[in-house]
Amino acid sequence: MSNIVAIVRNLWKYYIIGNTSVAVLKNVNLEVRRGEIIGIHGPSGSGKSTLLKIMAGLEKPDQGEVIIEGYNLNLLSEDGLAMIRTNIVSYIPQDYGLIEDFTVYENIELPLMLLGLEKRERHIRIMELIDYMGLRGKESIRVKYLSGGEKQRVAIARALTITPSLLLADEPASNLDWENAKKVLELFVKISRDFNTSIVIVSHDPRTLEYTYRRFEMFDGILRPLT
Ligand SMILES: Nc1ncnc2c1ncn2[C@@H]1O[C@H](COP(=O)(O)OP(=O)(O)OP(=O)(O)O)[C@@H](O)[C@H]1O
């Protein structure tokens, strides 16, 4: 197994805004090592979410490439990209990406159904994750009734159903007060230790960087290491 989980090489992305084409990622390069936590800090609109979505195979770059566990995402079909998302990379969107009317249990169950696990196996895995994330007792509560911190923990539990090599977290602490944000960030540290998962956390809050080992700044589409 290679020590490098992901390589982002010479990545460019443009959006048409009004009548003009605007570069939102400008020659972004990044290597993610196994088991490390990378922090990317930058203001709103600097391109952080766009980078994560491209790394998750949810959007395509205009130039450059992303290689995850040896797979060049540019060369994969839609089925291939779906395989990456169900087996290797988990992306946690800023709005958690949960189904608000479903219970905690049902939200965590969905990806396990996609993986084709039997009901009994699903149950064992769901309860393991519920315990791991400190959500015991909340299984049958609909997500819409949970606090922001609890929703974030359900979103992380769902992302962990596959034990990903790479976990991409978009502003995981931004909707939380700092006490709850710290608990979530400590969980990411625990996950990287327990499963050797590589984690990329993007945030506009510089305090988030305290929980990461290698730090970068994104400004106007340019990614630079922070020293
Ligand atoms: N699908 C899209 N179509 C057009 N423009 C887009 C699209 N997605 C993002 N943008 C623009 O690209 C720029 C970068 O957006 P992005 O969401 O990557 O930034 P961000 O750093 O994650 O900010 P935030 O934290 O506010 O989400 C913004 O100016 C945004 O308006």
TrEMBL record:
Coiled-coil annotated spans: none
Keywords: ATP-binding, Nucleotide-binding, Transport
InterPro entries, A to Z: AAA+_ATPase, ABC_transporter-like_ATP-bd, ABC_transporter-like_CS, ABC_transpr_LolD-like, MacB-like_ATP-bd, P-loop_NTPase
Gene Ontology annotations for the cellular component aspect, listed alphabetically: plasma membrane
Protein name, per record: ABC transporter related
PROSITE patterns (UniProt xref): ABC_TRANSPORTER_1, ABC_TRANSPORTER_2
Xref: SMART domains: AAA (SM00382)
Entries under CDD domains matching the protein: ABC_MJ0796_LolCDE_FtsE
GO molecular function, one term: ATP hydrolysis activity
Record-annotated ABC transporter domain positions: 6-226
